[in-house]
Specification:
By secondary structure, the protein is mainly beta. It contains 1 helix and 17 strands. Strands 5-4-8-2-1-11-14-13 form an 8-stranded mixed β-sheet, with no helix packed on it. A 4-stranded antiparallel β-sheet has the order 9-10-15-12, with no helix packed on it. A hairpin with a 2-residue loop joins strand 13 and strand 14. The radius of gyration is 20 Å and the shape is globular. The two termini are 39 Å apart.
């Protein structure tokens, strides 16, 4: 966790929009990711610093005015929980985008992007992956400006096994079968762009999930998700949620 509530990253860059793609592997308990972050450079700089913990960045490039500039050096500060990209040239003020490719571990710390094991209705152990980003743990899932004041919009894409389900803050706008991995089907799920918000508000879960649903008197459709086969255990939560909306 961050050591204090002080802003630890330089304020020379402002994030505007994250296009984030994550591909969790529930067999290897790891994930691959890539992101395109629309930013505004507020003052000339040769480096850009973001929050990042236990993330291995493979590459980073900045695009501005039609020119792509790869990072010449990538350095980590474990104490400050940051990664710094040194581009070796002065980056001018104005709009730009960062393209970052990275990998990480689905940890067992119940924070960031983490794994959980449960017993299904047939008595078999299964894994799911979910998030807990509050208050400063989005940085464990992807490099970002992980401070509440540094708000941005998020467009999330998840690449997961075809038999699994993914849920996030926003509704799904597309779901496409995109091939196979080790003989298993893979699908790509794209969620609608979120409102401008802090990083800790982004949330998602991937697993063998199912749901029960009901439309309230005001026309709002309410769903409660559970692991498959335990849908009725969500009945009380569904009933209470609908009453709260009356």
């Amino acid at each position: 966790m961050a050591k204090s509530n002080a802003i630890l990253v330089p304020t020379n860059v402002k994030p505007l929009r994250y296009q984030l793609e994550l591909e969790p592997d529930l067999q290897q308990l790891s994930f691959k990711g890539r992101e395109s972050v629309s930013i505004e450079i507020l003052e000339p700089t040769t480096t850009i610093t973001m929050n990042s913990v236990e993330i291995d960045v493979q590459s980073c490039a900045l695009t501005a005015n039609g020119r792509s500039i790869p990072a010449q050096k990538i350095s980590y500060d474990e104490e400050q929980e940051t990664v710094t990209f040194d581009f070796g040239v002065s980056l001018a003020e104005g709009a730009a985008s960062l393209e970052i490719v990275f990998t990480g571990e689905l940890n067992d710390k119940l924070r960031g992007f983490y794994r959980s094991q449960y017993e299904d209705v047939d008595g078999n152990n299964q894994w799911m992956a979910s998030t807990q980003f509050e208050s400063t743990d989005a940085r464990r899932a992807f490099p970002c400006w992980d401070e509440p004041a540094l708000k941005a919009a998020f467009e999330l894409t998840l690449v997961i096994p075809s038999e699994l389900t993914a849920v996030s803050n926003m509704p799904i706008i597309s779901e496409t079968n995109t091939g196979e991995s080790e003989g298993n089907g893979i699908k790509t799920i794209v969620f609608a762009e979120s409102p401008v918000m802090s990083t800790y508000l982004l949330a998602f879960i991937i697993g063998d999930l199912s749901y029960i649903e009901q439309t309230g008197d005001n026309g709002t459709l309410m769903r409660v998700f559970t692991t498959r086969g335990r849908e009725e255990q969500g009945r009380f939560a569904l009933d209470v949620s609908l009453k709260l909306l009356e």
